[in-house]
Amino acid sequence: MTAVGHGGLAGHLDGFVRAVREAGIPVGISQAVDAAEILTVVDLLDREQLRHGLAAVLLQRAAQRPTYDVLFDLWWPLGDRPVADTEDDDGGQGAEATLDVPDDAALAELMRAELLRLLTDGDPEELRRFAREAVDQLGQGQPTPSGQSYFSYRVLRALSPDTLVAQLLAGLLGDAGTGGLAEQVARQTVRDRLNAFKSAVEAEVRRRTAAEKGRDRVAKNAVRPLADQVDFLRAQAADLAELRRAVTPLARRLAVRLSARRRLGREGRLDFRKTVRASLATGGVPVVTHHRPRKVHKPELVVLCDVSGSVAGFSHFTLMLTQALREHFSGVRAFAFVDSTDEVTRFFRPGVDVADAISRIGREAQVVAYDGHSDYGTAFEVFADRWASAVGPKTSLLVLGDGRTNYRQPGVPVLADLVRRARSAHWLNPEPRRMWGSGDSAADRYGEVIDMVECRNAAQLTDFVTTL
User: What does pTM read for this prediction?
Assistant: First the structure.
């Protein structure tokens, strides 16, 4: 690991902890103090020991580990010489390459053979050092005014590690032959080692870029947001897969919050007969009162969800939430709308895949009546005309959408009437609060008649559920 002078070690750690915090991983003062203590008990020359030691005190969830690893590689890079020497001599490029051949083609072929040997041996430290050398020899792009550029794709294209799978399998299996458990284990080992090498190449490219442009700048581009901080409106397929795992516990907590009967307090109604009977032991004075058990009911829930193209990522997530909520509410009725409204409860049977349900909604549900652009006013009116009885004193109403009306009538009076008839009503808006009321947004007007909540990511949804 690259050496860091003892005088700057505390400042270096402080910068690392600050970067971890800025990436969305909560790090308190006590954890920062524990991280400083880790530096006194681990071998600072053992990079992996330091990595795991700091992770033990800074992380709370396994999902935070990929972000942490990227930042750790930037702040505690692998190197052969002290930081000062590296930066002064070659801009952070580290030790000189050990391979010396006359031309690029021969160099790539020789390095490819060396990679095959290292992948067969499986020494992670040697693979990381080889990745540094590969980036140095094969990853350089055209120099720019800001300095030398390096690219991981150039290294992987030159070495083509994925084409070594057959040779690696043969080397690992030996005389064992193909088929059976041995081959399955060997294939998994090959995948793990190839992924480790690719990750090492990417980490080395980030390290060299950080030496040129600064760690903070690289960290902002290299670190992906944590799953609970991904903006719903910009979520990709992989993000939605991760968010799906967070839906079930959130749905359970939301159900509990919405079903709380605050007006009756912690206990049920007074049991007059038991109270009088117990008072006989104290001369007729009811020192102790008895109450009937409080009935915990599963409330009814009506979800109105905007499924127009402008909020596609958000509607995907909220329909996943709707599916999960069905397990915790006695009656969940889901309604989707664009410029008209249709009930889509039938598409969310237990066990159904949410992606299939959304696809069916697009094909079969009558959510578009005119031009396919959001029309909240018409959608609310259609709902009130056709399903007025769906909202009543036992119903919790949940509206999901950005409130952008395409400059059409917002239908505020209709929404206000629905809110008055509901037991509780909330609107989750995926747009930042500062944009409410801008352009064709009627969110500020809707906020006058319903509890409008900013809900751009799963973390904000968690906050809403917690404070409900």
Answer: 0.59
